[in-house]
Amino acid sequence: MPAPTLRQLTGVFLRIGNTTFGGGLPTIAALQRELVEQNRWLSLEDYALAFSLARITPGTNVIAFCAAAGARIMGMRGALAAMLAETAPSAVLAVLMTQGYETWRSNGWVMAGVAGTIAAVAGMMWASAWYIVRPYFTDFGSALRGSLIALGAFFAFWKLGLGPVTVIGLAAVVGLLWKEPAGDATRPPETEL
Amino acid sequence: MNLFLLYLLLFKAVITSFSGMASLPVVRNDFVEKRHVLTDRQLNTAVVAGQTGPGPNGLYLVSVGYFAGGLPGAAAGLIALITPAFVIIPLMSWIGKYAKTPRIRGAINAVILASAGLLMAASIPLSRDAATSPLAAALIVISFIVLTSTRVETWWVMLGAAAVGLGAKLFG
Predict the structure, then answer these.
(1) Most buried pick, A2, A16, A48, B156, via CB within 10 A?
(2) Which of B11, B40, B127, B143 to mutate to test binding with chain A, by most A CBs within 10 Å of its CB?
(3) Lowest-pLDDT range, A174-188, B116-130, B135-149?
(4) B158 and B107 part of one domain
């Protein structure tokens, strides 16, 4: 398997990570083409392992994927280079957009556009919740378990006033004690990345 | 706001979530409700700034950091965003086999499902803040329907909503 230089590796993550819109899944798909199929720096097995483990790593899954892929290819410096190349330029852009909003907030036209965008973001957040729950609606047992855990967390936070970390801890305990219906244990959830 | 505290709060939000936007309830709880460092409008703006460009969904934390602590705060946000990813490196070596254990997988899936419930709860106040007019309320519903029933990218939905907002000002 050919080994890239640090510059080559960083270049791929810079290019893919900062030009692919639509969140994590399209980015990971594009990285698969580059890392596995075109350059052959990463085996398909390692790609699949990184992809699966990124889903159960806390935080943003695509960043965890970059860390895993970078580490597999070039150790710790590969992981660091991949993560920074994936996130730093987009982070600068996010700051510039935030500054732009602050500068232009007295402009009625800009604010009319931003108000529309903010409404779309609110819709997107509801959609994100649905994306997370949807893969569990495969059969009655999974749908019931998934709905009750999600709605239980909702009410625990919204009505009982429990903190998010407490709710997540309770959910983990419930998940340990309430066995998933057969077939669910190995099915990776298709959550938004 | 103290930079280290800012980092710790953002790190806590990231480490207790399993996808880019799932950290939002913790961020809102700490920054809007408890500490009053941000308003709901600023949090909404941070999400817009993070979502409009390329890159991972969790980038809104950089904007949250910027609102709370300027450029050093934005850097703290970026570091908080990437720190938990280091966990995957030892995971790659030894946890792969345990992750398929039914009970562990069940616990992980329950945490993921709970994050959906928390996200819904956090979406209520943010939606109230965004629904400044009947048109904005309609945009929230339409965006949800388009995003959940089509394969249109989020970026295009946000661009379309901005165009509708501008059109409403032009003709209203």
Answers:
(1) A16
(2) B143
(3) A174-188
(4) no
